[in-house]
Amino acid sequence: MTLTDPAPLQRTLTVASVPSGHVYVRHLSSPEGHLVRRLPDPDPSSGSRSAVQPASPPVMLRPEWAATADFDLFHLHCGFEASSPEELAELTRALRRRGKPFVFTVHDLRPHHPDRTLHDRQLDVLVPAADRLITLTPGAAAEILRRWGREAEVVPHPHVVELHAMAALQPEKVDRHRTFRVGLHVESLRADMDPLRLLPTLVETVARLDGAVLQVNVPCDVLEAGGAGHDADVAAYLAHEQLRGRLELHVHDHLSDGELWSYLASLDACVLPHRSGTHSGWLEACRDLQTTVVAPSCGYFAEQGPVLGYLHDEEQFDPDSLRAAVTTAYAERPRLGADVEERRRQRALIEDAHHRIYRALVT
Question: What CATH number matches the domain at 163-332, 2.60.40.10, 1.25.40.10, 2.40.10.330, 3.40.50.2000?
Answer without folding.
Answer: 3.40.50.2000
